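Anyone opening a protein record will find just a pair of labelled lines. With that in mind, the following record should read easily:
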Amino acid sequence: MLTSVLSFTPEQAATVTEYCTNHSEDVSPSLKELWDRTVSEFDDSDKMSSPLQSATFKFLAELLRPRRILEIGCYTGYSALTWYEATINTRAEITSLELDSKMIAASKRTFARYGVEDRVKLIEGPAQESLQKLTGTFDLIFVDANKDGYETYVKQILDKNLLARDGVIIADNIFARGMTISEDCNPHLPEKVRPYWTANGKALQKFNTFLKNDPRVDVVLLPVFDGLTLIKLKPLLN
């Protein structure tokens, strides 16, 4: 096999996802409940991380043992709840940035329902403005907001030294449903959302070029979920 990606039809991809989910560590009852409720209440719930992705993030966070976590984009609080559960032992401080008033309200309900307000702080408003006010460093940063803002947000993080020396940035949806690769990449994408994801793909092409050319970071783009980029600072030279 010379490539890193298998070719699946949507039906095959769904079957593979189910297989992987069934053979991976399961998410908690709280996360299952929140997932089901979000899917039932929000038409755009496909923006939420999948249960398999949540299990992956929990696995990574338990390995990294972060003390401070920052996420840009909260949605209904699913990823924040994941980080919370993954850092019970380290009692990580979790800061989540969100602009959309509907999502802010949903996240507040989530945090109150599951009793995570002792370690989860929600900051309302434009992420670019919120980032300017943050201080200190974060061990894990999750970027999952408006795709045309990724380059600005990560550049701010690097310029302000918000990423810890041994920290990692995880950027989600880098494939933009395939539109980052090519506008012809995903013939199964519904036409009603194609313009939205096409615009996102163009923004993420610029983001990927920015990362590749930034001398401060090492980057790997993984062909999992909807494209996942891992970013860390380059090692210091002895």
The chain has a mean pLDDT of 94. The two ends are 38 Å apart (CA to CA). DSSP finds eight helices and seven strands in the chain.
